[in-house]
Amino acid sequence: xxxxxxxxxxxxxxxxxxxxxxxxxxxxxxxMARAEQLLGTLAERFKIESVPPKVAEIxxxxxxxxxxxxxxxxxxxDCARRVxxxxxxxxxxxxxxxxxxxxxxxxxxxxxxxxxxxxARDDLPQVEAALLAAGWEWVKPDPYDDAYYRDHMxxxxxxxxxxxxxxxxxxxxILPLTARRRPDARAMLADANCLPSRLREGPGEGQSxxxxxxxxxxxxxxxxxxxxxxxxxxxxxxxxPPDMVCHSAAHLFADxxxxxxxxxxxxxxxxxxxxxxxEFWVQLRSRASLHQLSEPVERAVRLAHQLYGTQIPKDxxxxxxQDKWYVARLTARDGWxxxxxxxxxxxxxxxxxxxxxxxxxxxxxxWVKWRKG
Amino acid sequence: xxxxxxxxxxxxxRIGSAWREPLAQMAELYRDxxxxxxxxxxVRLEPTGLLRRWLRPSVAICGDYMLPDxxxxxxxxxxxxxxxxxxxxxxxxxxxxxxxxxxxxxxDGRVLVMTGQSGSGKSTLSALLGSRGWRFMGDEFVLLxxxxxxxxxxxxxxxxxxxxxxxxxxxxxxxxxxxxxxxTPKGDIRHLVPPGDAIARMGQGGAPAxxxxxxxxxxxEVREVAPGETFMRLTQASTNxxxxxxxxxxxxxxFVRSVPSRAIDYQSGEEAVALVEQLxxxxx
Lengths: 373, 284
Known about the structure:
The complex is a heterodimer.
Chain A: H1 6-13, H2 23-35, H3 39-45, H4 53-83, E1 92-93, H5 95-101, E2 115-118, H6 124-133, E3 136-138, H7 143-152, E4 159-161, E5 167-171, H8 185-191, E6 193-194, E7 198-200, E8 225-227, E9 237-238, H9 241-253, H10 261-275, H11 278-290, H12 294-308, H13 323-330, H14 342-356, H15 359-371
Parallel strand pairs in A: 1-9, 2-5
Antiparallel strand pairs in A: 1-2, 3-4, 4-5, 6-9, 7-8
Helix pairs in contact in A: 3-4, 4-5, 9-10, 9-11, 9-12, 10-12
Chain B: E1 2-8, E2 11-17, H1 21-29, E3 41-47, E4 58-63, E5 73-74, H2 78-93, E6 98-107, E7 110-115, H3 122-130, E8 135-138, E9 141-144, E10 151-152, E11 158-161, H4 163-171, E12 181-184, E13 187-192, H5 196-200, E14 207-216, E15 221-224, H6 227-237, H7 246-258, E16 261-266, H8 269-283
């Protein structure tokens, strides 16, 4: 049995590596892909690669599912847009929803769960009131949790829509306020780009799906679209390309315990591949430094290159001696889809809390959580 | 990890377990089913904690698709855990057919579909009809093919609950029954292996000809159900209607337009079989 998810990494990097897989190998690869939420992505990668008929059926099924996730993510984004139409500030889509709304390669086949948006911190009360009035409600009514989110987190406590049962995370910055790194959310909002007046919906039509950074803003394409107002006011935004990479890298390496890390790294691989230009790499360096994210961004670039073969400039290449631990954690998954390497996982779990808050505060937080059972 | 593989209708499962017992029971009950080389879904029965493999063993239901808050089961109910996990893979992962939470039986190439809440008797009724000249197709899911509109069988083990256990034992004293699983979250459960023709012909679908909404425990009655209501009830009975998008809508509207439907109330198996035969004669 395969003891780690290198099999999955290889298949994503180069589908031809699966040509000699037997039924057992395929079963294990598919289990790993499901566990890492990468089955839809794998299906996209294998669109033109020939696979055994049984595998083709599963990949076709994964495409149906990815279309559904894309459709519901865009629908949910549009619901939020309509509710916030009267709001003067920018509403920036983040992560998966942003990738599909902008027609980026990172969104192809991607699994998307909650809706994540970014708004200015000063505007939170207004946004919160509008969402509550339109049917969203708090997921965690506990007063300690609520106060904790408001005082120390980068987002409001999660809200869920009572009829559609979908969550929204309203961010005002991209890392917890207690983290040592302090990204410049104001600059991110200032540089955010307005999405075209119509969000694409449904699967991409061939090549029109991929887009280059040099292209003009996306124009309306093909059928199935959601209507959006033409101007910025009441419309939706996405982060600028370098900020998008900074956010993804911060999410992956400066927050959390690397759960779903292979998928996040695949996002970064796709973003870098699509945005790459001499100018972009310079901007990325300076934006990463502005957001105090140089180290996570550099690590993300190195590891995307190492694992997925992303083309990167020479001055970004190299190898840090800690990188191997990150690779070990990212690929800690066996052929049954089970998490493996418990000790390394534990270390990264501890690290995630260490990054998130100073030690004394962590102790107090764990104490309160423990007392509440 | 111990392993067992089984093919049920179009879906192939790989079941891994930290314990041998549940898989030994499965191998015995599923002995006439094909054992596929390639599988669509993986299911895992894992200890809930470090010591829970040996000490008051407790089975966590894991797999390709999982529910975050699925309650663990004691090892004695490991077989049930595996069956629940397999159903969950279908409910959350299957996108090749429109999945209806329903039972089905077939005669002369035409299919009777029965749907209803848990406790409506659709499962027992399908098992009963399966021993009265109908071919049993499944008691949990009916798969509708989006291209042909046919109902495709998914004849997993029949899951009999509480009073249905004794009732089926009386009807099929020589039936191949699994162990009695007492005190599960759904009461007593005992599995029954479907009849031989159900397994032998599990690759063969048929055109849906009649839809019934059975309800056990009420005086015998037959009511018409308007197509709009049928449609709405079936969207609720489907686990993947929304996910299939347009294909789900066209498959379901075709089904509702072409298949007559009735609600039936009954108080005994005999009464239900008689009602079904009458309606089948008249409508199908």
